[in-house]
Write a structure and sequence with these properties.
Bound molecules: iron/sulfur cluster, Broken Fe4S4 cluster
Radius of gyration: 24 Å
Number of domains: 3
Shape: globular
Helix content: 40-55%
Mean pLDDT: 97
Largest sheet: 6 strands, parallel
CATH architecture of the largest domain: 3-Layer(aba) Sandwich
Number of helices: 27
CATH topology of the largest domain: Rossmann fold
Number of strands: 16
Strand content: 5-15%
Low-confidence stretches: none
């Protein structure tokens, strides 16, 4: 599918969403973009991070152009901004860590025979166990899996001052050393999250620099107690993803089938929905449908795309529009990134919104818990509710845009190394590194993160990546960024000819053909969901280890062009702690403090080797990223 120009309001370049805007307008339904207009002008103090509500003497706000320069307690702009930033990073960290904790508990219950999930990722167990120093000799997979789960839980129960094991076991040793010297190695992740909330309370930490160090620590908790832990455990439970073909955008919805959308982040929910949709397809047919069609939105979609090739209906800002097709019978949500507005939109149709997690309920939704011990029962109820809803579908209200693109997913590190090993079995990373050295590949960019109503949906992802690919930059993607790129043909082999520069195309073709794909690899490799950013971290760490240099010296950049969630900020802080320049298309609310802004975009480079790079124009951002890559190449003598 070709990307088209933005519609008249500059809202989106997605033609399917544009089409559905017209339907929404005809039917009098508001979406996030309409609500954004109603919010304008948004509060300038809030945008700059200069509002404090941390005690009941406030809210206090700092005037960046004059008085007052302090809040009632004397906190100035730097302190208020740094405190707000730490709360925001910690919010993102808590989200990922709680998500990972659920997966760990599920694995523990599975090893006690108490959870209705089979162990599908035996291939992951040995590698994770080796990193954690768990002896596997003579033990069954379930026994080792249990020790892995208990090791993770020991981190959450750690009452000593020793750093958390998952970090020291999985992060590059050079980084652990740097972070140790900075005094930011996290201990028990829950304790550190608690401490960050405490430090930012009224009358506790008054040092902006100390708070910024705490931000880095919080980023590390996100990286290792959230992302890495989450990916490792989910791969053990659900299997290591392998390349798989699918399709993306609203055209994947099928008017002849019962359409169920999985939305959120937890594969323990989306996997069960996929399983029971298949098992209950006869009931769907008995209701007059041709079958059950599961489609994804956000990272629940990414999880089942990576492991089963489940198609994508859209990314973050598409969620309401998917319901507006009138063809969605049920939307099943778990945690994070579903808008409270979806129940109101759904009330205009027959669509059932189904919540599944105790911490994430919606007043007008159906709540069907998916819990480890009763997941099958819950999933069956969900499918049957969707079948009932389908019977009430109003054909006159159904309009599914035809737009969709072929897309490939499933590029775990194991899958990428597997493909490279077809070129050099003894030394799989060698072909990649050789091509970086000879300049066929200039460098690599990991593009991640969300959509945000403040920027045209998908435009930044697409324009930035087009320019980087044309300049022979290898691109990997996760989250809603991967979904954006999926919609416009960046995730299929044909996209390589269209978008990749000569050098990059030669490499993608050589690896793709050696791996038996009969053509090039897609120009953008989909590495998974937001927690799967750990896969990007592992790939970058492996490259650094191969070259025997720190990550900060590699020609590698991270980018979140259209970020919206606190999780995107905490992931970004982790990337900066790893030593990566991290581009963001929108600034977080820190511009009210020249000190904090300077530390994040400049001074921190002298501490971790990474820094934030804020640029809201796609072309300028591409040029800035390319300049950084060339500078790093020069540093390596390339
Ligand atoms: Fe105002 Fe200080 Fe209270 Fe914040 S902590 S609301 S700046 S008095
Ligand atoms: S879902 S965090 S909108 S990427 Fe992971 Fe998408 Fe951002 Fe949510």
């Amino acid at each position: 599918m070709e990307c088209t120009k933005c519609n008249e309001n500059g809202r989106t370049i997605d033609p399917a969403v544009q089409e559905l805007f017209k339907k929404a307008a005809d039917e009098g339904i508001d979406t996030a973009w309409d609500r954004y207009e109603q919010q304008k002008p948004q509060c300038g103090f809030g945008e700059l991070g200069l509002c404090c509500r941390n005690c009941l003497q406030g809210p206090c706000r700092i005037n960046p152009f004059g008085e007052p320069k302090t809040g009632v307690c004397g906190a100035d702009a730097d302190l208020i901004v740094a405190r707000n930033l730490l709360r925001s990073v910690t919010g993102g960290t808590a989200s990922h860590t709680d998500h990972a904790y659920s997966a760990v508990q599920l694995l523990r219950l599975m090893t006690e025979g108490k959870a209705e999930y089979p162990l599908k990722g035996a291939g992951k167990i040995a590698g994770v166990a080796a990193k954690l120093g768990i002896d596997t000799k003579g033990k069954k997979d379930e026994e080792v899996a249990r020790e892995i789960a208990l090791t993770a839980l020991a981190d959450f129960g750690n009452y000593s001052d020793a750093p958390m094991k998952w970090l020291t076991a999985t992060a590059p040793a050079e980084r652990v050393d740097v972070w140790g010297k900075l005094g930011i190695l996290p201990r028990n992740p829950d304790r550190e999250i608690r401490r960050a909330m405490h430090a930012t309370a009224m009358g506790v930490d008054g040092s902006p620099m100390n708070l910024l160090l705490a931000c880095l620590k919080s980023g590390l908790i996100d990286g290792y107690a959230g992302l890495h832990l989450g990916t490792d455990i989910q791969d053990i439970i659900f299997g290591i993803p392998a390349p798989v073909k699918t399709e993306a955008n609203m055209g994947v919805l099928d008017k002849n089938k019962i359409n169920i959308i999985v939305h959120g982040h937890m594969p323990e929910v989306s996997e069960k929905v996929v399983e029971w949709a298949d098992k209950l397809s006869a009931e769907a047919k008995a209701a007059g449908a041709e079958g059950i069609n599961i489609a994804g939105i956000c990272c629940s979609g990414n999880e089942v795309l990576m492991r089963h090739g489940v198609p994508l209906a859209g990314n973050f800002l598409s969620q309401e529009l998917a319901v507006i097709t009138g063809a969605v019978d049920a939307m099943v949500v778990d945690v994070q990134c579903f808008m409270p507005a979806i129940t109101k939109v759904a009330s205009c149709y027959h669509t059932r919104i189904i919540t599944t997690q105790g911490i994430a309920q919606l007043p007008d939704a159906e709540h069907i818990p998916i819990e480890p011990e009763h997941a099958d029962e819950g999933a069956q109820k969900i499918i049957r509710l969707a079948i009932e809803a389908y019977k009430k579908r109003d054909a006159a209200k159904v309009s599914i845009p035809r737009h969709k693109s072929e897309a490939w997913g499933g590029f775990s590190v194991e899958a990428i190394v597997g493909a490279l090993s077809k070129v050099d079995a003894a030394n799989p990373l060698k072909p990649l590194v050789d091509n970086i050295v000879n300049g066929n590949i200039k460098g690599a960019v990991g593009v991640v993160g969300c959509n945000n109503v403040k920027t045209t949906q998908d435009a930044f992802h697409v324009e930035l990546i087009k320019e980087l690919l044309a300049n022979d930059v290898l691109v990997v993607a996760t989250g809603c960024s991967a979904q954006a790129l999926a919609k416009y043909g960046f995730l299929c082999p044909e996209g390589a000819q269209k978008y990749a520069g000569k050098g990059l195309l030669a490499v993608l073709t050589a690896v793709g053909e050696a791996a038996g794909l009969g053509g090039p690899l897609p120009p953008v490799l989909h590495m998974g969901s937001c927690v799967d950013n750990s896969r990007i971290g592992d790939l970058v760490g492996a490259l650094a280890a191969y070259l025997k240099v720190p990550i900060k010296d590699l020609p590698v950049v991270a980018s979140a062009p259209e970020l919206q969630h606190e999780k995107a900020i905490s992931i970004g802080v982790w990337a900066v702690a790893l030593g990566l320049m991290t581009h963001i298309g929108l600034p977080p609310p820190v511009l009210g403090s020249p000190l904090v802004s300077k530390v994040l975009t400049a001074d921190i480079e002298g501490i971790t080797g990474g820094k934030f790079y804020v640029e809201g124009d796609a072309h300028k951002a591409a040029q800035g990223i390319l300049a950084h890559i060339m500078q790093k190449r020069k540093g390596l003598g390339l």
